[in-house]
Amino acid sequence: MIDSKLIQEQPDLVAANNQKRGAKIDISAAQNLLSERSSLIGEVEKLRAQGNEIAGQIPKVADEARAALVAEGKNIKDQVKVKDEELNKVQAQLDEELHKYPNVLREDVPEGSDESANQEMRKIGEPPKFEFEVKDHLELGENLGLIDVERAAKISGSRFAYFKGEFVQLEFALINYVLSVLVPEGFRPVLPPHIISTKAMRAMGYLDHGGEEEVYHLKNDDAVLIGTSEQAVGPMFMDEMIAGEELPLRFVAFSPCYRREAGSYGKDVRGILRMHQFDKLEMFSYVLPEQSDQEHEFLLAMQERLMQGLKLPYRVMKLSAGDTGAPSARTYDIETWMPSQNTYRETHSTSNTTDYQSRRLNTRYKNGKEKGYVHMLNGTAFAIGRIMIAIMENYQQAEGSIEVPDILRPWLGKDKIGS
Prior knowledge:
Structural class: alpha+beta
Number of helices: 13
Largest sheet: 8 strands, mixed
Number of domains: 2
Strand order of the largest sheet: 1-11-12-13-16-10-9-4
């Protein structure tokens, strides 16, 4: 959640941010609750001070006066209990109200209500030119016996697939490639839980603003399946204080991801571009507040380094205000060229969520005498299915085989798939 002090001290900034994002929120509701909370806190503190004063007097007075003081002290305790209950109720209402607020955008985020306003920052590489009719990834995969969506649909329903043979080897080659690049850069590998509590998911900000519809709920257990490994890595230090000298903390997590794709309405139903289950490698950083913008550029640089190693054409996009997710203060996407669609499609995303998630998670730092909430960032290393689509289509050969990118050959042990 955003810092409630911003609503008190900079309401115009918060209102402008909400408007920029298209979030229709009446900030007076939060302002009134904050005022009510402040008054109640003052009343409780005053009553407790009176109670402490009476408690200090009791041993000093004569027996005949003591009973009256004890009765007065009990009356004050009862009043404190009532006020505490009122305060807890107001705090719960305030927390619920603050959960509606998106993060405050960085100043450089472009204006705009949707993806049409996203800003292209650069293009790297030229789309390949083919002297034969281009096949899409599903046709290539089925012809080579690498992808089986029909049998998966029979077992699990639509938007599932069996990966087989060299396709599995290609996935593990990509995993090894990512680790070979990121581990020397200080990223610690993590295999996170695939199931987390509803509380942890809510704290990460993924059950608000329509996000709940995307999540698979395990209702008997008050738990959910993760839709990306950052949702399990982010809460790792929930309710903890991290020593400033340990920051930045960097992790690279590998996990399956589960998404209902409730809002896609039949979009990208062919093949494996938009699946209910897919594997992903995700970068995640915990940093001091003054480090977060620099760390965001670092995560983007790591994404580009991985892409340039595969020699895939891509472009970097800075998302507009209306296309930036609620927890994020700024998001960059990498879109990779997909020959069968004759366009670029999103394969990577990296976001600086500043202290939006850490406030909910109560993940703090202590740096000397300074204390505060850490800043948290995430970035896709590879969404395995999507990057394998890009490799298949950009590296396809006339006879139907797929050339293996040079950098993956040591792990795959061959130059071509299906040759």
